[in-house]
Each structure stands twice: as C-alpha cells, then as structure tokens.
Write a structure and sequence with these properties.
Blueprint lengths: L12 H20 L6 H8 L3 H13 L1 H15 L1 H20 L4 H11 L5 H12 L2 H16 L1 H16 L4 H21 L25 H10 L1 H13 L14 H30 L11 H33 L7 H13 L1 H15 L1 H19 L8 H23 L10 H23 L4 H19 L8 E5 L5 E5 L2
Helix pairs in contact: 1-5, 1-7, 1-8, 1-9, 1-10, 3-6, 4-5, 4-7, 4-19, 5-6, 5-7, 5-10, 7-8, 7-19, 8-16, 8-18, 9-10, 11-13, 12-13, 12-19, 14-15, 14-18, 14-19, 14-20, 15-18, 16-17, 16-18, 17-18, 17-20
C-alpha cells in the first residue's frame, strides 16, 4: 500500500493516486477562480458597476459552505472516484453558462452555481486518507491541499494571457470556456485512472447517510450547536445581497425575498437537526462500545482551527494588494501592479508551507504542530497590525511571507488530523471543517468592511489566540481506530 518514503517522481501505487487527485483539485480551483483575473475584461464587456462586480465575487463563495457538507456526505456514501468525476463534469456546466452570459443576472446565476465546484477539496481528503498510512498521511494531505490550491494562482497567471491569445474584448469567454472543457475532459480521465482504495482494502461507509454519527448524547448537542455558524453565515450572505445590506453590493435580493430566504435557511437547519437526531437516535439508546467511540471535540476544534487558518487566508489574499497600494503608493511609490505581485506572495507560500505543515505533523506530533502554527499565526497577525507607510517594504513582505508560512502550515496540520478521527466519516468531517474555512473567510471580510486593516489584523490575532487555547483540548491521535467489515468483523486501523 505504501513505501517508507514518498517518491514523488513515481507514477504508480499511492503516488499515482496522489498526483491524479491533487490535479483534480487543481483543476477544480482553476474553474472556481477563473473569473477573478478576467474581471476587468468581463466588466467592460457587460458594463458592470462596482457593486455588481463585488456581488459576483461574493456569490462565488456563497454555495461552497453547504456544498462542502453535501459533498462530504456523498463521498462517504459513493466513494471519491465517482464523486470527484461527477463534480468535475457537472462543474463544467455553470462554467459554460458564465462564458456565454450576456447580462449581469446570467453571470450571477452561473457564478452562484460555480461555488459547488469549490467543494471538490473535500473529496480528495478522503481519497488520500484511504491510500496513505498514518505516518505519511499528513504530508500526503499537505501536498494534495497545497499543490491543488495553487490552481487559483495558476488561473491568475495563465488565463489573462489565454484571453489575449484569442484577442478582442470577448477573449475572456474563450479562456473561461476552455477551463470548462478541461474540467469535463479530466472527469473522464480521473474516473478511469483511480480506485477508491488499494486492492484488498475495504471502503468503509456510514451506516446511515445525512449526518455524522456521534458517540454520546453530549456530543449530539455539541454537533447540533456547531452547525449553527454555518447557517448563520448563509444568513449573513443573504443580508449582504439584500436591499438593507448596504451599498457595497447590488440589491440582488429584495427585503421581502431576503426574509423568505432567511426562513428557508433556518428551516433547513431544523431539518438538519432532525437528520442528526435520526441518524444517531438508535445507536445512542444503548452505550457505544469503547473501541467505536470518538470525541466530537476533535472535529469542533479542527473546525475552529481551519476557520482562522484558511478563513484568514481567504480574507488576507483578497485585501492585501489594495492594502499594500493604499499604504505605500505615496510613501514608497508602489504601483497597483507591484502591490498585486507583492500581495500574491501570501498565497504563493501555500505551495510549500502546507505540505510542510503536514510533514511536521507526521514527524513531531499533530497536536504540537497545530499548537506551534496557531501561536505563530497569532504573533504574525499581531505584528502585521502595526504596519504603516513608514515601514520598509522589504520588511513588510518578509513579515507577510513569514505569517503566511504559519497560516498555510496550520491548514496542513489541520488536515493531517482529519483522516485519523473516524475513517468511514472522513468525507463528512472534512466537509464540515472545510465549510468552517469558508465561514471564516466571509466573517473576516465582513469585519474588514467595518474596521481599518490594522484593526482587522488585530481581530485575527485575537481569534488565533483563542483557537490556540482551544487546540490544547484536542487529543493526539494514537493507537487504533476500529471499523466494522461487511461480514461483521472488526478492522483496527493504525493511527501512529
């Protein structure tokens, strides 16, 4: 199933699965972020206003929060091979819709639907967890996440040139359409190139679909409570896009429609609570055997850790170019292009730092590594809150990249633990943790709209410090986790 060392130049066994799967994630992120580098050309073609542009950008993340939960359920039930292939194929449809749109409303609908492909990340977490043992799963998940995440940067680098190649104001349509063709083509390649597990291994599935199983009545209440922020964030997004949400976005939703959407969101939450209780009521009526127990606090702490790690990364990557320009364009004559390149340094580090976070978790312990990354992140954001126009730009960039190392490393450390909690629910756990990352992005960007960048960094320092304390309650994965084979026999999966 695995070799003592990862030979990344190999293309067989679990290394082949790793390469095929990070590439699927890479393509899904190219598609998800294909609009960002072309937004000026799109706005020019369709005469979009600034509020309409901002609305398109926020709609891109709106559906990803519930999508990651749904995809987590589907991957546990149907397996990563079928789920990833289907998502890549279906994700090409809104991509083609966006490329052929002739109005803001068509763009908005296509962008909203495109958010679903952003949930593809969850699928690969389960796939990689199936193919790599505990001693390698951290670095394998880190490579998957870090290299796949680079798809957003690749889109920013390649798509403008691709649009110019076709020439004219409509070149962006061909560039975006081509990403849809790539996604559709790779869905076929992926389906015929991978399998859900190594030969002879069992793909464990939840007994019931629709929600995670928990091990105690208190964990049931904890699980229900931890779902509230997911739905609250959807309500926040609805408010932002409504008439009463301010002038930063278009009034895409009337106040009356917003009320019905809010009601729908919380009715969905009530239904989710019903599903959670339905999935758990039978097996919680009698004590759960010790070997089948897991602590939901493990999931909850990882939710919060990913909220600050990936959530702050999303927020900082979005605001950093403008922050650099506004801070230094007068004192140090920084142009908008230079500010964009300097801001991109925060995301670029992800390519190396996220795998490093997973590797350090494998080597030195998962709780210790996550603690160090949270502490570094807290210190980094605290220091960034003091940046002003008098700082040398070289020092600012060095500080930014150092902070990014802890942020991206923290993402890698989180997902070095996720596959080691409960194998048959890895997709659902990864989905919930991933959704909290998007919750963080929406939350921090909302805070930024009300405060100065310096206060924004200080807020994230405070959140990281609080999560650092929460991480101390997590348990280091050790020993074995038990899963039940179809014939009723118990398989013990090593966690060390």
């Amino acid at each position: 199933m695995s070799s003592p060392k990862l030979n990344l130049f190999s293309f067989s066994g679990n290394i082949k699965i790793l390469h095929m799967t990070w590439m699927a994630f890479f393509i899904s992120f190219v598609v998800w972020f294909n609009h960002a580098p072309l937004m000026l050309a799109i706005a020019k073609t369709l005469n979009l206003s600034q509020p309409e542009i901002k609305t398109i950008l926020i709609l891109n993340v709106a559906l990803t929060i519930p999508a990651r939960i749904v995809i987590g359920i589907l991957v546990d039930k149907f397996g990563p091979k079928r789920t990833y292939s289907t998502l890549l194929a279906l994700g090409s449809i809104p991509c083609f819709m966006f490329a052929t749109a002739d109005s803001f409303e068509q763009l908005a609908l296509a962008r909203f639907l495109m958010g679903f492909i952003g949930a593809g990340f969850v699928i690969g977490i389960r796939m990689v967890g199936e193919w790599f043992p505990a001693r390698q799963v951290g670095i394998a998940e880190g490579i998957y996440g870090g290299w796949g995440n680079f798809g957003s940067a690749a889109a920013a680098i390649a798509l403008p040139s691709f649009a110019l190649l076709f020439g004219g104001d409509e070149g962006w349509r061909y560039a975006i359409g081509c990403t849809g063709v790539i996604s559709l083509s790779y869905s076929v390649v992926y389906f015929f190139s991978v399998s859900d597990t190594p030969k002879g291994s069992t793909y464990f599935k939840p007994k019931k679909a629709g929600a995670m199983e928990v091990s105690s009545i208190w964990d049931l209440f904890f699980y229900i409570a931890m779902n509230i922020p997911l739905y609250a964030t959807l309500s926040l997004l609805t408010w932002k896009l409504s008439s009463s949400g301010g002038s930063n976005y278009t009034n895409l939703i009337s106040d009356t429609a917003a009320i019905f959407i809010h009601i729908g969101i919380w009715c969905l939450y009530v239904y989710n609570v019903y599903k959670i209780i339905h999935v758990n009521e039978e097996h919680l009526q009698k004590p759960v055997a010790e070997i089948h127990k897991y602590k939901f606090k493990q999931v909850a702490v990882l939710d919060l850790a990913y909220m600050i790690a990936f959530g702050s990364e999303l927020a900082v990557v979005s605001m950093l170019p403008i922050f650099f320009f506004e801070t230094f364009h007068e004192s140090q004559d920084i142009t908008m292009v230079e500010a964009g390149l300097l801001g991109g340094s925060f995301a670029f580090i992800n390519l190396v730092a996220r795998p490093a976070g997973g590797w350090l978790s494998d080597k030195f312990g998962r709780k210790l590594s996550l603690t160090v990354f949270m502490a570094g992140m807290s210190a980094g954001y605290f220091t960034m809150s003091f940046i002003d126009s008098e700082w040398p730009i070289a020092v600012v960039v060095l500080l930014t990249m150092s902070c990014s190392c802890f942020v991206s490393g923290g993402c890698g450390a989180v997902y070095a633990i996720v596959p080691l909690i409960k194998r048959r629910m890895t997709g659902q756990i990864a989905g919930m943790v991933g959704a909290y990352g998007n919750v963080g992005g929406v939350l921090f960007l909302t805070i930024l709209s009300f405060v100065t960048p310096n206060i924004f960094f200080l807020v994230m320092h405070g959140v990281a410090l609080a999560v650092l304390l929460a991480v101390q309650f997590i348990d280091e994965p050790k020993g074995h986790m038990a899963e039940v084979q179809e014939d009723g026999s118990i398989e013990m999966i090593e966690l060390n």
